């Protein structure tokens, strides 16, 4: 079960974990190109999973006052305000009359800053091609990795692979060691800080892909609540096809920066069960550009540690050679 | 600030770094001082068990006694630190409900569970000759002391080494990137600490092996640490900045000073004690510094994003994808 092959590369996670005849792997395809930032998913997740509030602070990061995924936020809607680098016509109202025809393609991303007021042609010539502002909104969630570092490193077996190929914490088994927290390459799982007395305080928490709902045949609360179908739930195989088709549509429409994130089974974590269609580089949304499950290097690490242990033994023995 | 060496060409300039409101990409480990203290004490215990075993085999009773007692005390301290971190003692037992080879923490728990009893027994066996202990018990203890002490000595090296894997098997940039040399840094640091503790407690006549272990460990630690920083690329930066930087500088200084004092005048008790204290402090600073540097590297998205970008760019130049 812990063979080298199961640490890296494409596998069927549920079968690899020992499920006999598991149902098709379930997951999310989050199409951020239709996300309207309504946060219905965040709220639905909180309500269904009885998650406490995260405090009521204004973070000063656009309309995002949640900040990040964590022990009490299992869906998080990111708001990116971008000025001066869009090459995509989102149909936003611009200044001046609409451009007659697609003009010259926009130069490299990031090249053009918003033209200062009073400067000339570009503003009226082709405003639609180069809006000097755009929104990127994306609902983030646990990726339910094919190779889940959180699950691999958990010493108690509290984190387990479900028959749906997803990754779930058993709060009654977790001992709060917090090891899963730095292991996750996406910064998802977190130990719940408090409040004292809460039975879940000190316990690692994250999205379960609504394991309880899945088992009774329902779809996860966030997908159910999403009004634009930005969050789509289903069989991962089929979702990957749907995502590829949607990417083709966007690319054909000239959205050159559109890309799939996490849909490749041969990426660093063996592909994710929850993947995304993004309109910019992953790090713009707070996602790692090339995450690799850390257990990929584990055999090498154990070899190095064994060599070091032998060196210590030899060193100690050597120090007893000689007289005094 | 330019990334440090590492032999990688700077394919992607740092200027292209972007992040989501500067927020961290990966989460820092939720570990307070308990964990580096636990690692330091574990290393000290392991090194001391080795010294005790060697002393037992080469008839150095004072060195044997100090090694066994130090090992037990350090082990007790590290167990207390771990339980404090977990919150409740029962949670430590919970760690034993399964054996998981993919989890360095699970493997480490089992290594400790195997090492602890013989190490403890060997220390208790030192009561054998103490007046007031019943004769019969004394004889049993005396007979058990050597096998227990030798078993503890054999199980000690993994105790010192596994904590390095514990740190590197994470997505924390400065821990993961250190995985090649960190085990060597930690075992050398354990050797220096154990040698230092023995210098404090053992008369010079019997402390020869402790002096050699201390000096050898200190030098090996300094060398391994320098190598580690070279192989870490830009993730070595946090080892030089802020609190972690101060700790690492102190670690190097104390370790070097401890080794120098031992070499120059390690046979004079006051100097030996000073050297031992410096080596112990240096070893502790190494663990605290490495842990703190990792936490700092996790808090700054730059250390997650820039190396990954660079890796992508390198992969792209190797095999241009359609
Ligand atoms: S995203 Fe993180 S928490 Fe979710 S399955 Fe992957 S490693 Fe685990
Ligand atoms: S905090 Fe809980 S779920 Fe996370 S690794 Fe530790 S025992 Fe496992």
Automatic annotation (TrEMBL), chain A:
Residues 106-127 have a biased composition (Low complexity). Binds 4 [4Fe-4S] clusters per subunit. [4Fe-4S] cluster 3 binds at residues 142, 145, 150, 184. Its cofactor is [4Fe-4S] cluster. Its main location: other. Residues 98-127 are annotated as: Disordered. Residues 26-55, 133-164, 165-194 form the 4Fe-4S ferredoxin-type domain. One of its GO terms (molecular function) is 4 iron, 4 sulfur cluster binding. GO terms for biological process: cellular respiration; formate oxidation. Keywords: 4Fe-4S, Iron, Iron-sulfur, Membrane, Metal-binding, Repeat, Transmembrane, Transmembrane helix. It is found in: Cell envelope. GO terms for cellular component: cell envelope. [4Fe-4S] cluster 1 binds at residues 35, 38, 41, 226. The chain crosses the membrane at residues 301-321. Gene3D superfamilies: 3.30.70.20. InterPro entries: 4Fe4S_Fe-S-bd (IPR017896), 4Fe4S_Fe_S_CS (IPR017900), FDH_Electron_Transfer_Unit (IPR051555), Formate_DH_Fe-S_su (IPR014603). It comes from the Bacteria. PROSITE patterns: 4FE4S_FER_1, 4FE4S_FER_2. This is Formate dehydrogenase iron-sulfur subunit. It comes from Georgenia muralis.
Automatic annotation (TrEMBL), chain B:
It is a multi-pass membrane protein. Keywords: Cell membrane, Membrane, Transmembrane, Transmembrane helix. The chain crosses the membrane at residues 35-57, 69-87, 107-128, 140-162, 182-202. InterPro entries: Electron_transfer_protein (IPR052049), NrfD-like (IPR005614). It comes from Georgenia muralis. Pfam families: NrfD (PF03916). PANTHER family: PROTEIN NRFD. Belongs to the NrfD family. The keyword Membrane applies. The keyword Coiled coil does not apply. One of its GO terms (cellular component) is plasma membrane. This is Polysulfide reductase NrfD. It is found in: Cell membrane.
């Amino acid at each position: 079960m812990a063979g080298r092959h199961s640490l890296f590369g494409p596998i069927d996670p549920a079968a690899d974990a020992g499920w006999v005849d598991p149902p098709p792997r379930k997951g999310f395809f989050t199409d951020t190109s239709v996300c309207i930032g309504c946060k219905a998913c965040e709220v639905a997740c909180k309500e269904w999973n009885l998650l406490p509030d995260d405090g009521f602070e204004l973070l000063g990061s656009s309309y995002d006052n949640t900040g990040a995924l964590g022990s009490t936020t299992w869906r998080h809607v990111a708001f990116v305000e971008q000025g001066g680098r869009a090459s995509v016509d989102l149909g936003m109202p611009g200044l001046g009359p609409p451009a007659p025809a697609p003009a010259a393609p926009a130069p490299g991303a990031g090249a053009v800053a918003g033209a200062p007021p009073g400067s000339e042609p570009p503003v009226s010539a082709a405003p639609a091609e180069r809006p000097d502002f755009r929104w990127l909104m994306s609902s983030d969630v646990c990726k339910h990795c094919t190779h889940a570092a959180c699950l691999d490193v958990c010493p108690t077996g509290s984190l387990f692979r479900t028959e749906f190929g997803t990754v779930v914490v058993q709060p009654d088994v977790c001992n709060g060691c917090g090891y899963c927290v730095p292991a996750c390459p996406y910064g998802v799982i977190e130990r719940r800080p408090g409040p004292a007395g809460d039975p879940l305080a000190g316990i690692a928490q994250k999205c379960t892909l609504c394991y309880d709902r899945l088992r009774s045949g329902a779809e996860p609360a966030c997908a159910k609540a999403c009004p634009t179908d930005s969050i789509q739930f289903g069989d991962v195989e089929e979702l990957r096809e749907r995502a590829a088709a949607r990417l083709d549509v966007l690319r054909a429409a000239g959205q050159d920066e559109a890309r799939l994130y996490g849909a490749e089974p041969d990426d660093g974590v063996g592909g994710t069960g929850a993947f995304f269609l993004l309109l910019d580089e992953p790090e713009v949304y707070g996602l790692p550009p090339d995450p690799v499950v850390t257990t990929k290097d584990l055999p090498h690490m154990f070899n190095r540690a064994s060599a070091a242990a032998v060196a210590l033994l030899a060193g100690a023995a050597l120090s007893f050679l000689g007289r005094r | 600030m330019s990334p440090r060496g590492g032999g990688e060409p700077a394919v992607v300039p740092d200027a292209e770094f972007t992040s989501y409101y500067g927020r961290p990409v990966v989460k820092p480990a939720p570990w307070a001082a308990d964990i580096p203290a636990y690692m330091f004490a574990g290393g000290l215990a392991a090194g001391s068990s080795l010294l005790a075993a060697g002393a037992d085999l080469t008839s150095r009773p004072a060195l044997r006694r100090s090694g066994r007692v130090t090992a037990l005390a350090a082990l007790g301290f590290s167990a207390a630190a771990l339980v404090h971190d977990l919150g409740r003692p029962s949670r430590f037992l919970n760690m034993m409900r399964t054996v998981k080879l993919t989890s360095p923490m699970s493997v480490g728990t089992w290594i400790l569970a195997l090492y602890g009893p013989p190490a403890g027994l060997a220390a208790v066996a030192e009561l054998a000759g103490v007046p007031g202990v019943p004769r019969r018990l004394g004889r049993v203890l005396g007979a058990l002391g050597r096998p227990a002490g030798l078993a503890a000595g054999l199980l000690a090296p993994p105790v010192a080494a596994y904590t390095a894997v514990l740190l590197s098997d994470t997505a924390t940039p400065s821990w993961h990137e250190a995985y090649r040399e960190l085990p060597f840094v930690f075992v050398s640091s354990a050797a220096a600490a154990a040698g230092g503790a023995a210098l404090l407690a053992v008369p010079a006549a019997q402390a020869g092996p402790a002096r050699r272990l201390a000096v050898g460990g200190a030098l090996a630690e300094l060398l391994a640490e320098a190598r580690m920083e070279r192989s870490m690329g830009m993730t070595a930066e946090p080892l030089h900045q802020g609190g972690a930087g101060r700790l690492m500088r102190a670690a190097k200084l104390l370790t070097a000073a401890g080794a120098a004092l031992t070499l120059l005048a390690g046979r004079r008790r006051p100097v030996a004690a000073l050297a031992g204290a410096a080596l112990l402090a240096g070893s502790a600073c190494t663990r605290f510094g490495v842990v703190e540097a990792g936490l700092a590297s996790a808090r700054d998205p730059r250390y997650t994003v820039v190396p990954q970008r660079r890796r992508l760019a390198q992969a792209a130049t190797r095999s241009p994808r359609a």
